[in-house]
Structure formats: structure tokens, C-alpha cells
């Protein structure tokens, strides 16, 4: 055992150790036959019995605060100070204001695309606040609040959506595909769930680098149906990666309700199957999300293993500006969720504490709207990047073949310049 | 970031005991492997087959870069082709390890490792299984190249797919420099100089083309220039174009199916760049547009006779 133990992590040794003990105890009893299959650890049974999903009660939804913003009996108040709670509220509402303005700007054709975060602001802010700012974030596309919390500026959001010359991403991706190396937020890409096994790999690298950090990987319940989600869960568990898988279960994947997405008990019920500690949390309760994420983070970093959090919430807005959700759900359904929104709930809590008033609310609304509008105007005025940027960063250095294509583009566009939108762009060299 | 992908071949798991056999043992078509000549500048050399050269390159990569990790299906015990033999014992189970059986997982996990600035060497057991994302594609023709190109791939700043011709794993044996060295990515190599026809290929097919060049000289008194592409993407246009401008005739050959194969891209570029120099249409001698067959392999492959017939046609064109 000692020799074997040298090559195994303490956790695996423990499991094997306990199995070995069980085996020796049972063999000392008379004729007790135990399965020796390497692929499982359990006992024999002569009962022909299938495990039924209905045999298990659904995994409960953890929360600490009700819709009135009251800490429930037995609920753990994280006792965040006034300043932190106000920052949470500011971030959630500023995101909400930015969403409204950018959504409208897409309707007016000023940006090509947008996705709002309505109803899910609590999952973003609660989880982001519980993480270390150095923890690495991999997201799907509806996690702008995490960046907002970490300090991505309104100008940076707007520059990306406009794809202007100040955009960190050089205007190459569609709107809301944010990323920031400074804020440890890995750039969003459209293909669903591909970030999940990547996040596991990054968590493995962080572990090897001896950093006391974790990765938090966000995804929707629809993306969890992808093969990549399976790969990610299994890799993270077998390779013991410090990663929080954070599922936003908002009831819909575009038009597809969860009843068409899965038949098990949501995403959380899959966690144990992969050998991961799992919790389901009320995604509209920012403190519930905060507590769950904080505890998960501690397990990740201390014990070097993955944890799964499923945050139950509701997608109040349309899927995107290319979607009209009234074609597949009733208005009343949305209204009932609007009242329960994480923003209302946190405001109630703050008012209960005497930390917020109607005056503060209207002053903040005014101020935040002004800030958003100013950033919006600045972003709109900026030129688009130099068209040569189309060819850079494909490789770290431009191969001759691409160089040639760039030269062709330049000479062609100069020759036919009246047909190309040069005025919108920073001039070519 | 680097990827190491392997190319599939029937029965490759069950190779015969005798390591120094000709390639015909494992294939219906006989190919003569010609060892590379190593310049004295490289210093001390060791006789290695392609597997040993790969293993040696990985060993050097792991020893010179503490962030480098090697992973994939069955890598820990040495790999089903023995390319990672002894590396786990030498560098520890956190650096050389098995993953669950999932190609999408392996590649994405590698991207994640690399995103943190570490070096990820991912192995895909059979190349037939995956093409999820690639920037650079590199294929060596023998042990000496395999080691130098693989080390370049591992150290390159771009994601890279490295295809290992499994037929050459044990059959290609030559002197390989013992130390640390690299062969540049993106550069083709002129193996044989010639004036009449340019023959272009990569991997195992290079050995076919070299033999074709010899046969063409003997039988038709035709002088062929043989170019090993080595890097498929981004490929060395300049070397190819200069050669075709000189010879005026070009045959491109690869095992993969003809439609939308690498040869199509090269042929289109040649007609674009060398139109006035061409004295015959660019010819492609490739696999047929069918799945790779079992018992019909000898009929499927673009062997030396098919290539030789092409040489005959191209010099008699018009």
C-alpha cells in the first residue's frame, strides 16, 4: 500500500484503502462473496431491480434570502459589508441599464447583435464576488456581469459591441464576445460548450503551476447537452482539476424548454455520476449564489477537485436580438419572474438594512444611465480598426502566403476605393 | 502550444517482431526507405527508428520545459505505438498521464493548458478521429525529421498538428542527432535536384517519389526534382514555385483522396504563379475519392507505377 500510495493522490489512496479494508473484513466472514470487478465498487445483489430516476427526490434548491430580501431562518447571511452589497447592486443595475440601451441600439441597427442578461444578474455578481479576481473565468456569452464586477469598463463593453479601433478584440468577433487578459476572463466564442474541457485544461495547468487559484466555467443548461460538457466533467474529475462548473439553468435554450433538453433532474443530478460534489442554488438569490460559490472555491483550491453548481433562474429577456420569445412562451410567464428578479430581491434586502432609499435609487438610475449613454456616444464616434487587422494574429507571425493576400487586399481596395467603406476605418499603412 | 496527432494504418498495432523490415511487410505496396544523411555539424548521432526519434524529442521537450505536459489515451504506460515509453517514470504522473477516451476532450483540454501559458502535447491515438481545430500541419518523412520538426512544433507559438506516418514507426531507421535540435516549420526541402519534372509530396509518399525519380531517370532519361513539403500549412510556396518555373512540369502526389486534397491547393497556386512556365497541365496522383479500403489497398494507393505513368504522360504532353 505504501509503495502504491507514492504514486497516487491522498484522495485515491483513501478510497483504495477503504476498499482494501472492506475486502479483508468480508473475507474473514464465512462465504461472503464480494465483486472484484475493477470498474466498480459495490456489493452483489440477487434482486432484479432497475434504478429509477423517480426513486430520488429532486436535488433541493439552496437559498438564504426570500423574495422580500429577508434572510430565512437557518439561512447563512454572508454578512457582507454595506460597501460590498452596494457594489453588487450597482453592478447588477448598471448591467441592466447597459442591456436596455444596447438592446435598443441593436433595434435601431446601430450594432449588429446583442444578448441581454435580464434575470440572471444575480448569478453573475454572486459568483464573481465569491471568487478571487485572479481566478480564471471561462464563459458562454451571458456572463457580462462577471466582467462588470471585475472592472471591465462601460467603454470596453461598448467598444467591443461596436468593433471599433479601441476594441481589445480588434473588431473581429460578434458583439458580446468579450474577453480581457487583464481581468483573467478568457475571450468568449460562439461554439457552445467548447470552453468547458478547455477550462478543465486551464485548471490543470493552474494546479501544476502551484497557484492557489481555480477556474470558474459558466455554461447554460442547453450547452450541457453537448459532448464537450461530458468530456469536461469527466476530465476534470479524473485529472483532479480545481474548477467550478457553474450552470445557468434558465429554463430555455433559445426556444427549447428544459423538458426537451433532458429528462433527468436538471444538470445537478449528473454531478455525482462523474464523482463531483454538487449543489443546486437559487440563482435569483445573490447571497445563496455567493455562499455556494465561496464554499465550492474553497473545496477546489484546497482539495484540488471539481465542483458543480447549478443555479436555477429564468431567462427574462429574449434569447438574443435575433429572437422573439413571445412565439414560444406567454407574456404572463415572464411577468411573474420579473417580480422575483435578483435585482428586486437585493434592493429589498438593502432597504431592510437601511442601506438604500428611493432617493438613492432615482439618483443612481440617473447617474448610471448618463454613464452608459456617454460611453455609448464615445464608442459610436470611434473609427473601425485598420482593415489590415483582418490578417494579423492568425498566427503569431504572418506567413508569406497571408502576407501576399494582405498586399492583394490593400492594392485592390485602393484601386476600387470608392466601393469600400474607407471612411469608417482607421487608414491602412 | 503543440499537438501531436498520429496517422492511422491498418494492423499497425500488430507489427512483426523484426524491426528492420522493408515497408512492404506492413503494406501491399513496397516502398524503399532511404535514410537521411546527417551533416557532421549536428555532432553525435544515434541509430533510431521513427518511434524512438519521437520518444527522444518528447523526452527533450519535457526535460527542457518544466511546464510541458504530455497526455492522451493510453499514453501513461508508453502509448499503443510506444512513443511515450518510460516518460511517465521519468517526469511523473502529473506530467505524462492518461485521459478519458474522448478526442474532443483531449484537444480542448490541451487548448486550456496552453491558454495558461503551459506547453500541451496532446496525443490523438489515430488521426482518423479528429480535425477540430488546426493552424499548422506538419508531417515528417523519417526519424531525423520527426525529432527536429516535433521539437519545433512543441516550441512554436502557434497550435500545431504533427502527423506521424505510422508505417515508418519501426521500418524507417537512420542516424539521428542525440542532442537538442529543431527543423524549421514552413520550409520545404529539395531532396533531389532535377530539370524536367517537379515531384511534390510529403510523409511516406516522399519515398515513393524518390524511387519514381530514379526509375524515370533509368527508363526514360527524365530528370525529376523531388520536393518534400514537410509543412502542409502554411506551406512553402516559394520553393515550389521556383522549382516549377525551372522544370515547367509538376506532379503532386498524396495518399489522401484527390478531391479537395492538399494537391488541389498547390496545383491552383502553381497555375496562378507559373502559368507562362507550364508546358503541361499540373497532375495530381492521389488516393481515389473513396474511404480507405482493406483488401484493395494495393489498388487504392498512388504507388510508384501510377506516379511513373504520370511522369511518362507529362513529358509526352501535347
TrEMBL record, chain A:
Gene3D superfamilies on file: 3.40.50.970
GO cellular component: mitochondrial matrix
Name of a matching Pfam family: E1_dh
Enzyme class of the recorded protein, top EC level: oxidoreductase
Major localisation: mitochondrion
Residue ranges of the region described as Disordered: 19-43
Catalysed reaction equations from the record: N(6)-[(R)-lipoyl]-L-lysyl-[protein] + 3-methyl-2-oxobutanoate + H(+) = N(6)-[(R)-S(8)-2-methylpropanoyldihydrolipoyl]-L-lysyl-[protein] + CO2
Dehydrogenase E1 component domain ranges (all copies): 90-388
Acetylation keyword on record: no
Biological process annotations from GO: branched-chain amino acid catabolic process
InterPro entries tied to this protein: Alpha-ketoacid_DH_E1_comp, DH_E1, THDP-binding
CDD domains in alphabetical order: TPP_E1_PDC_ADC_BCADC (cd02000)
Similarity annotation: Belongs to the BCKDHA family.
PANTHER family membership: 2-OXOISOVALERATE DEHYDROGENASE SUBUNIT ALPHA, MITOCHONDRIAL
Name of the protein in question: 2-oxoisovalerate dehydrogenase subunit alpha
UniProtKB/TrEMBL annotation, chain B:
Annotated keywords: Oxidoreductase
Source organism phylogeny: Eukaryota, Metazoa, Spiralia, Lophotrochozoa, Mollusca
Organism: Mytilus coruscus
The name this protein goes by in its record: 3-methyl-2-oxobutanoate dehydrogenase (2-methylpropanoyl-transferring)
Keyword Oxidoreductase among UniProt keywords: yes
Gene3D superfamilies referenced in this protein's UniProt entry, alphabetically: 3.40.50.920, 3.40.50.970
Domain Transketolase-like pyrimidine-binding residue range list: 48-171
PANTHER family reported for this sequence: 2-OXOISOVALERATE DEHYDROGENASE SUBUNIT BETA, MITOCHONDRIAL (PTHR42980:SF1), 2-OXOISOVALERATE DEHYDROGENASE SUBUNIT BETA-RELATED (PTHR42980)
Coiled-coil zones: none
Xref: SUPFAM superfamilies: Thiamin diphosphate-binding fold (THDP-binding), TK C-terminal domain-like
Pfam family, one: Transket_pyr
Amino acid at each position: 500500500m505504501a509503495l502504491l500510495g507514492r504514486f497516487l493522490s491522498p484522495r485515491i489512496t483513501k478510497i483504495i484503502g477503504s476498499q482494501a479494508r472492506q475486502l479483508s473484513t468480508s473475507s474473514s466472514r464465512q462465504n461472503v462473496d464480494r465483486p472484484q470487478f475493477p470498474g466498480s465498487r459495490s456489493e452483489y445483489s440477487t434482486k432484479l431491480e432497475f434504478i429509477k430516476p423517480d426513486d430520488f427526490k429532486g436535488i433541493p434548491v439552496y437559498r438564504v434570502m426570500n423574495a422580500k430580501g429577508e434572510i430565512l431562518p437557518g439561512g447563512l447571511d454572508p454578512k457582507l459589508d454595506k460597501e460590498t452589497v452596494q457594489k453588487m447592486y450597482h453592478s447588477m443595475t448598471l448591467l441592466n441599464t447597459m442591456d436596455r440601451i444596447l438592446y435598443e441600439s441593436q433595434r435601431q441597427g446601430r450594432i449588429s447583435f446583442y444578448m441581454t442578461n435580464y434575470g440572471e444578474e444575480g448569478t453573475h455578481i454572486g459568483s464573481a464576488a465569491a471568487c478571487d479576481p485572479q481566478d480564471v473565468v471561462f464563459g458562454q456569452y451571458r456572463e457580462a456581469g462577471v466582467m462588470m464586477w471585475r472592472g471591465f469598463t462601460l467603454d470596453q463593453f461598448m467598444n467591443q459591441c461596436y468593433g471599433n479601433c479601441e476594441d481589445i478584440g480588434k473588431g473581429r468577433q460578434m458583439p458580446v464576445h468579450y474577453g480581457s487578459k487583464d481581468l483573467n476572463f478568457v475571450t468568449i466564442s460562439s461554439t457552445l460548450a467548447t470552453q468547458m474541457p478547455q477550462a478543465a485544461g486551464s485548471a490543470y495547468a493552474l494546479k501544476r503551476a502551484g497557484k492557489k487559484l481555480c477556474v470558474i466555467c459558466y455554461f447554460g443548461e442547453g450547452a450541457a447537452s453537448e459532448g464537450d460538457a461530458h468530456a469536461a466533467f469527466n476530465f476534470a474529475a479524473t485529472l483532479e482539476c480545481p474548477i467550478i462548473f457553474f450552470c445557468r439553468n434558465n429554463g430555455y435554450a433559445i426556444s427549447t424548454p428544459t423538458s426537451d433538453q433532458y429528462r433527468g433532474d436538471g444538470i445537478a443530478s449528473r454531478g455525482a455520476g462523474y464523482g463531483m460534489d454538487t449543489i443546486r442554488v437559487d440563482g435569483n438569490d445573490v447571497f445563496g449564489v455567493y455562499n455556494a460559490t465561496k464554499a465550492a472555491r474553497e473545496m477546489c483550491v484546497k482539495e484540488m477537485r471539481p465542483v458543480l453548481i447549478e443555479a436555477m433562474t429564468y431567462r427574462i429577456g429574449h434569447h438574443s436580438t435575433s429572437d422573439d420569445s413571445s412565439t414560444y412562451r406567454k407574456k404572463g410567464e415572464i411577468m411573474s419572474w420579473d417580480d422575483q428578479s435578483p435585482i428586486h430581491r437585493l434592493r429589498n434586502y438593502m432597504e431592510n438594512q437601511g442601506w438604500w432609499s428611493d432617493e438613492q435609487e432615482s439618483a443612481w438610475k440617473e447617474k448610471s444611465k448618463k454613464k452608459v449613454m456617454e460611453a455609448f456616444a464615445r464608442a459610436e464616434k470611434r473609427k473601425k480598426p485598420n482593415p489590415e487587422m483582418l490578417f494579423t494574429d492568425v498566427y503569431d507571425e504572418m506567413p508569406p502566403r497571408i502576407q501576399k493576400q494582405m498586399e492583394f487586399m490593400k492594392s485592390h481596395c485602393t484601386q476600387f476605393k470608392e466601393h469600400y467603406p474607407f471612411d469608417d476605418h482607421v487608414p491602412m499603412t | 502550444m503543440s499537438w501531436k496527432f498520429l496517422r492511422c494504418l491498418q494492423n499497425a498495432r500488430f507489427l512483426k517482431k523484426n524491426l528492420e523490415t522493408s515497408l512492404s511487410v506492413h503494406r501491399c505496396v513496397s516502398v524503399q526507405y532511404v535514410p537521411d544523411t546527417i551533416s557532421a555539424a549536428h555532432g553525435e548521432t544515434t541509430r533510431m527508428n521513427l518511434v524512438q526519434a519521437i520518444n527522444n524529442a518528447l523526452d527533450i521537450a519535457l526535460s527542457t520545459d518544466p511546464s510541458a505536459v504530455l497526455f492522451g489515451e493510453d499514453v501513461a504506460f508508453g502509448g499503443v505505438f510506444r512513443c511515450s515509453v518510460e516518460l511517465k517514470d521519468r517526469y511523473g504522473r502529473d506530467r505524462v498521464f492518461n485521459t478519458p477516451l474522448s478526442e474532443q476532450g483531449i484537444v480542448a483540454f490541451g487548448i486550456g493548458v496552453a491558454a495558461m501559458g503551459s506547453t500541451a502535447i496532446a496525443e490523438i491515438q489515430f488521426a482518423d478521429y479528429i480535425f477540430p481545430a488546426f493552424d499548422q500541419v506538419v508531417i515528417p518523412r523519417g526519424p531525423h525529421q520527426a525529432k527536429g520538426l516535433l521539437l519545433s512544433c512543441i516550441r512554436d507559438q502557434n497550435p500545431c498538428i504533427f502527423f506521424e506516418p505510422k508505417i515508418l514507426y519501426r521500418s524507417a531507421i537512420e542516424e539521428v542527432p542525440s542532442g537538442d535540435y529543431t527543423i524549421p516549420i514552413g520550409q520545404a526541402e529539395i531532396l533531389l535536384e532535377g530539370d524536367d519534372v517537379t515531384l511534390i509530396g510529403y510523409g511516406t509518399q516522399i519515398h515513393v517519389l524518390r524511387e519514381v525519380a530514379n526509375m524515370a531517370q533509368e527508363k526514360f532519361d527524365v530528370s525529376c526534382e523531388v520536393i518534400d513539403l514537410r509543412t502542409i500549412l502554411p506551406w512553402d510556396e516559394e520553393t515550389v514555385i521556383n522549382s516549377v518555373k525551372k522544370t515547367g512540369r509538376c506532379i503532386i502526389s498524396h495518399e489522401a483522396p484527390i478531391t479537395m486534397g492538399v494537391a488541389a491547393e498547390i496545383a491552383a497556386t502553381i497555375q496562378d504563379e507559373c502559368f507562362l512556365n507550364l508546358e503541361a497541365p499540373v497532375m495530381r496522383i492521389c488516393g481515389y475519392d473513396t474511404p480507405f479500403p482493406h483488401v484493395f489497398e494495393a489498388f487504392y494507393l498512388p504507388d510508384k507505377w501510377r506516379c511513373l505513368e504520370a511522369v511518362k504522360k507529362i513529358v509526352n504532353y501535347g
